[in-house]
Every structure is written in C-alpha cells, then in structure tokens.
Automatic annotation (TrEMBL):
GO terms for molecular function: ATP binding; ATP hydrolysis activity. The lineage of its organism: Bacteria, Thermotogati, Deinococcota, Deinococci, Thermales. This is ABC transporter. Gene3D superfamilies: P-loop containing nucleotide triphosphate hydrolases. CDD domains: ABC_DR_subfamily_A (cd03230). Keywords: ATP-binding, Nucleotide-binding, Transport. Transmembrane segments: none annotated. Pfam families: ABC_tran (PF00005). InterPro entries: AAA+_ATPase, ABC_transporter-like_ATP-bd, ABC_transporter-like_CS, ABC_transporter_ATP-binding, P-loop_NTPase. It comes from the Bacteria. Residues 16-239 form the ABC transporter domain. The keyword Nucleotide-binding applies.
Length: 303
C-alpha cells in the first residue's frame, strides 16, 4: 500500500513520465517497453537515429496518441486531460504558420488560449524576434519562422516545453539564438524535453540525455557519460590481416579495408604499430552521432 502510494506521488511530482510504453503502427514497432521520466527543472535531450521512436514518444506525452501498452503521464494526469495540457507547450517538427498573419497576430492568437500567457515582449526578445512584430509570417526567413514556431511553444507560460528537433535546418547563428531562449526559460525554472539529432545541441543545453534506438532506451546519463559512449573515432586502413585489438567497439571489413570504431583511436593505432600490422592509407576521423549509434547498437564485433 505504502509502495503504490509512493509510486503515485512520484509520478504526480514529475512533469512527464512514460512507463513501459509500447506503440506499434501496424507491423512497425515504434516503441518497445520504453520508460522515461522528465523531472522538474531539467532539460532532458532525447537522442536517437532516424526512426528511433523520438516523435512517437513525444506524441504520447503530448496526448496526441495513446500507447498500446504501458502508461503516459503528464503532471500526474493522463496527457489527454486538458488540465494537464494547459501546462504544456509543444513545437512540432514542421513549421506551419499562416502566411497572411503578422507575427504579433500569431502570438496573440496562441496566447489567447492560456489564462496566464508569457508577455509578448518577453517572447519576442527571448527568441530574437524583436522588430518583426508587424511582419507577415510569409515574409519571414526560414530561421525566423522556426524561431517563431519555437516561441509559440512558450506563449502559454508552460511548466513543460517539448521541442521536437527545434533547430533542424537552421544556421549556426539562428541555432545559438534559439538555444539562448531555451536556456533562459530553464534558468527561470522551466522544464524541457528536447529531441535532436545533434550531439552538439544536447551538449549545449541538456542536463541529462536519453538515447533511444528502435524504440528502446539504450543509454541514459549526463552529457559526459553519453559522450564517452558515443564519442567514437573511426580508424580506417587497408591491411591483409588483423590481430585481436583492444578498445574496439565495432569492426567492419570490406575486402582488405578495415573500419574500426573506438573511443581511443591513439591506443588502437599504437597497437597496430606494436603488432607490426602492415597497414596502408590510415585515416582517423570523428564519427557522426548517427554512425556512433550504429556502432553502439549494431551487432557485436565481427570480421
Ligand atoms: N503514422 C505512422 N504510420 C506508420 N509508421 C510510422 C508512423 N509514424 C512513425 N512510424 C514509424 O515508426 C518508427 C518510429 O518513428 P518516429 O517518427 O517516432 O521516429 P523518430 O525517432 O522521431 O525519427 P526521426 O528522427 O526521423 O524524426 C519509424 O519506423 C517510423 O517509420
């Protein structure tokens, strides 16, 4: 009795919880027994390759879809409960703004749905939109549109904001300006769940990272802990044979070309020299997050 009560209190105190959720689209398994908790005041970055299930997880928390199994909680309530969603702001992946409406009109339209909206000035300033109030949305640049779409997620003065790949397609400057707005919200006590393909973005913003792949949680921890796991280097060279090597997360062979993934490229190259491997055309480079995920989640080492 005490235990189940503790469980309820725990869920009620967290802005968002997924508890062992599974979601299938026909034969496609989008999520498999995924558990995730976003705690008050944190910025949790949800990372994963294309099709990992990030958007599906978000849609369950936003009450847009229901899990086939398991439960989703938003402020201790069913996410489809309007009372729970009144405290939530969401930016979808796609930016659909009416071309004819002016920036201030769009903001007012969204603010009007909330009892205690964030002041317009603050939103404009926070997301670098000052001076654009009277511009029609159709006349905004891609980066400005994206910043406005993200600002809208904050318009209702929410306690939790879900940002689904907010900076995809933005240049470095626009991305940084958006990060500043998100950081300021979090500094004022806001909670954020962010999905992104960019490790750099998670690094700049996240207090914690969860990595999902094929609908399952495969890693979770601080930025440092995740970086240590996905911060792999790729070592590639041609050689006739390869002795066993230490510190290799994954090994691929195509003809006489070997591709090794390792967190310790220097150590691997040193072993090649020490073991007198006659290698040619050595290349060492950092892998993309995508490749790191494949190396992490792929089959075990094989030739
Ligand atoms: N409406 C749908 N109907 C059928 N399959 C779907 C649907 N939505 C998503 N899927 C599939 O479910 C899986 C998870 O998709 P989801 O969009 O949640 O992943 P994601 O991690 O957000 O991907 P991305 O990074 O590409 O946005 C994928 O295999 C996808 O093709």
């Amino acid at each position: 009795m005490v235990r189940s009560l503790a469980k309820v209190v725990h869920k009620a105190s967290s802005p968002a919880v997924l508890e062992q959720v599974s979601k299938h689209y026909g034969r496609v398994k989008a999520l498999e027994e995924l558990s995730l908790e976003v705690t008050e005041g944190e910025l949790l970055a949800l990372l994963g390759p294309n099709g990992a299930g990030k958007s599906t997880a978000i849609s369950l928390l936003a009450g847009l879809r229901r899990p086939d199994r398991g439960r989703a909680w938003l402020f201790g309530l069913d996410p489809r409960d309007p009372q729970a969603r009144a405290n939530l702001g969401v930016t979808p992946q796609e930016t659909g703004l009416p071309n004819e409406l002016r920036v201030h009109e769009v903001l007012e339209l969204v603010q009007a749905h909330y009892p205690n909206p964030t002041p317009r000035r603050e939103l404009l300033e926070r997301f670098g939109l000052g001076g654009l109030e009277r511009r029609q949305c159709g006349g905004l640049s891609g980066g400005q549109k994206r910043r406005l779409a993200v600002a809208l997620a904050f318009a209702g003065n929410p306690r939790l904001v879900i940002l689904d790949e907010p900076t995809t397609g933005l240049d470095v400057e626009a991305r940084r300006s958006l990060w500043e707005g998100v950081k300021r919200y979090q500094a004022q006590g806001g909670t954020v769940l962010l999905t992104t393909h960019y490790l750099e973005e998670a690094e700049a913003l996240a207090s914690r990272i969860a990595v999902i792949d094929r609908g399952r949680l495969i890693a979770e921890g601080t930025v440092g802990q995740i970086k240590a796991r996905v911060g792999l280097k790729q070592v590639r060279f041609a050689a006739a044979e390869l002795p066993p090597l230490e510190g290799v997360s994954r090994l691929e062979r195509e003809g006489d070309t070997f591709t090794l993934y390792t967190p310790e490229a220097d150590t691997v190259v040193r072993q090649l020299v020490q073991k007198s491997v006659a290698f040619k055309g050595l290349e060492v480079r950092s892998v993309s997050l995508e490749e790191a995920f494949v190396a992490l989640t792929g089959e075990p080492q094989k030739e």
